Amino acid sequence: MSEFPKLFSPFKVGNIELKNRITMTPLFLGMAELDGSVGELILDHYREMGSSGVGMVVVENASVDISGMGTVKMIRADSDNFLPGLKTLAQTIKSGGAAAIQQINHTGRYAYHAERWGPSLIKYEYVTVREMPKEEIARTVQAYASAARRVKEAGFDGVEIHGGTGYLLVQFLSARTNRRNDEYGGSLENRMRFPLEVVEAVRKAVGDDFPVGYRFIADEWLPDGLHPEETLQYARELDKRGLAYLSVMAGNYDSFFLPEYIEDEKKEGHHVHFAAEVKRAVPKVPVITAGRIQRPEMAEEIVATGKADLIGLARVLLADPLWPKKAAGEISDPINPCQPGCAFCLKRIMKAKISYCIRWPNARREAFQARIGDKPK
Fold it and tell me: In terms of pTM, does the model score above 0.85?
């Protein structure tokens, strides 16, 4: 009998039977090949994640269109040319005993191009965001649908639409970045239109028997950004579209480096209260929570009290891929915790470098550094 019976109880997401309540939430590490294809580096990483003991692995965002790539090191799902690699990736994860979900995304104003698409014309210090005309909106909706179809064809168990971290869908949803005066801007009903069109197109493309999850932003952590009074209304609209789950997060690239966010991010379970609000708003929809859930005791309490249905581990699982097996009592060694305030992995991504955990044991870290040609610190 597990010390954490709720955490290690089975759970159903759509038609997927999960062996426990632990999921790997997406964590971009910049390991894709320069053409966006899947190579050995990313396969080795997800092979370890698939065999870590989690019930479900959600792969980091794959681009739905080349115009929405945040970096050249992003996985691509915008062409059938990438299907062979995606198939191998899905098989690799599932061979370890976990369900495999592929997240799809368009980064909008965070794309690496000099000019980027967004809901409205906005000039920043170094880039200009172009307002998406309606024909480009329609084309992008279909790009999401086509990418989701490829994910299904590749053999994944489900697809997750990225509606978090301030990317394109959030840019339309938020009045902070959406300044349009047509049917895609203004009221919350209008600002929801494009992301809901994406959800509906994806659902149609993959069929009712293929689970579609959604990475959900509850709060942008900015005074003029999205807050629960609007996002909970959006959650209710998503509920009507029959999504398999909502994976709840908060913040975007404009708030991640604010002193108040950095301080809050050090707290264990710092996003759980947002997930609990979403769960109360849409009680029938499975909810994933994340945010530095370091201890199995906390994970058990979250599930047992109904604050969320599933526990998401991202950097925590990167720091210790054996976390689920240690929590289950299969391995007696202590958990290697993700260090609050460290952000080493995020800082490497911001410098366009392949990321890893500085807290890995020396031998593992040095071997990985040698493999990617990184100078030891």
Answer: yes
